[in-house]
């Protein structure tokens, strides 16, 4: 059935509303930041906040406005070079590790760039959009939400390098939570199951096609691994026993002298950690965060368990509401598990490392043109994480969502849930 005129207008105003909300949220995230905060880059993996604000705008300018808005005037022709992230089809770009050297353009000029693009987008959103253009705008909104999470994790990393350990948001004492009980286990039968996105509603290309997988019977923990459990692992020499570690992980230990999760430091015999609310005592009841795949895997070996595969995780999460401690809660830190029954913390708190490499699903084809570079070219050397974190925007993730990072990365809100063969 072809959409009626009224239905088309509805879809268009929903998209316009969503565009405005996403764009306004990025401005809110930037509010506590000075131009200096937004300019510095703490490591090649992280980008300055100013760069995130500009790059997400460049995405709309390049992918949506240039090809589709007749007479659109570029805000500044140098910005294509400065704010292209990794699109080879679009051309040469400023080297990623040098993004923090861009003291100009100023934060104010980036905000003017945003306003210029927003205005042109409003005109376009008021016109009769074809489905391809609408899909690109939708992609641009989800893309910007991904960068909203990165903006927070990159600011956390930047502020952690400052000896005064500044807080992005007002420090807030950690609420005292009851110590979570022993881990419970949910058992799942083996068999042939379907995973992947079914094409209804938005999903990134790498989430599909939906396809069959063969699973052996398995058990999955009903909650995330806690800081308290991580302290036991450390106290038992977890970081000093090579037999627990993958060879590549042990090489990281030797090279970087890891002995605790990223951001942890000892003060008078107590563990503290850097958070978006400044330095805080490590809460033993909260989920551990900022651990690499290598650390998650070593912990699982120490516990006599393993990490779940992404198919196991997706099967376990089927039918659960996509609700949890996301960025919208304002907490900006992982939260201890509640006492309710069933699987807890599947969504929000920390991204959960799975033991599955990020590879194409059967039948996967990247899109034509530049947006085809979005995910497909990263399907080598990275592991899938599931579920979203306390820095993920509300409504951004879903059961089929596949996040991915290299196994040594620790600056995201990454943690783990254990699994085992049943
Ligand atoms: Fe991007």
UniProtKB/TrEMBL annotation:
<dbReference type="InterPro" id="IPR042095">
    <property type="entry name" value="SUMF_sf"/>
</dbReference>
<dbReference type="Pfam" id="PF03781">
    <property type="entry name" value="FGE-sulfatase"/>
</dbReference>
<dbReference type="InterPro" id="IPR034660">
    <property type="entry name" value="DinB/YfiT-like"/>
</dbReference>
<keyword id="KW-0408">Iron</keyword>
<dbReference type="GO" id="GO:0052699">
    <property type="term" value="P:ergothioneine biosynthetic process"/>
</dbReference>
<comment type="pathway">
    <text>Amino-acid biosynthesis; ergothioneine biosynthesis.</text>
</comment>
<dbReference type="InterPro" id="IPR005532">
    <property type="entry name" value="SUMF_dom"/>
</dbReference>
<keyword id="KW-0560">Oxidoreductase</keyword>
<feature type="domain" description="Sulfatase-modifying factor enzyme-like">
    <location>
        <begin position="186"/>
        <end position="320"/>
    </location>
</feature>
<dbReference type="InterPro" id="IPR016187">
    <property type="entry name" value="CTDL_fold"/>
</dbReference>
<feature type="domain" description="DinB-like">
    <location>
        <begin position="19"/>
        <end position="149"/>
    </location>
</feature>
<dbReference type="InterPro" id="IPR024775">
    <property type="entry name" value="DinB-like"/>
</dbReference>
<dbReference type="InterPro" id="IPR017806">
    <property type="entry name" value="EgtB"/>
</dbReference>
<dbReference type="InterPro" id="IPR051043">
    <property type="entry name" value="Sulfatase_Mod_Factor_Kinase"/>
</dbReference>
<feature type="domain" description="Sulfatase-modifying factor enzyme-like">
    <location>
        <begin position="339"/>
        <end position="419"/>
    </location>
</feature>
<dbReference type="Pfam" id="PF12867">
    <property type="entry name" value="DinB_2"/>
</dbReference>
<protein>
    <submittedName>
        <fullName>Ergothioneine biosynthesis protein EgtB</fullName>
    </submittedName>
</protein>
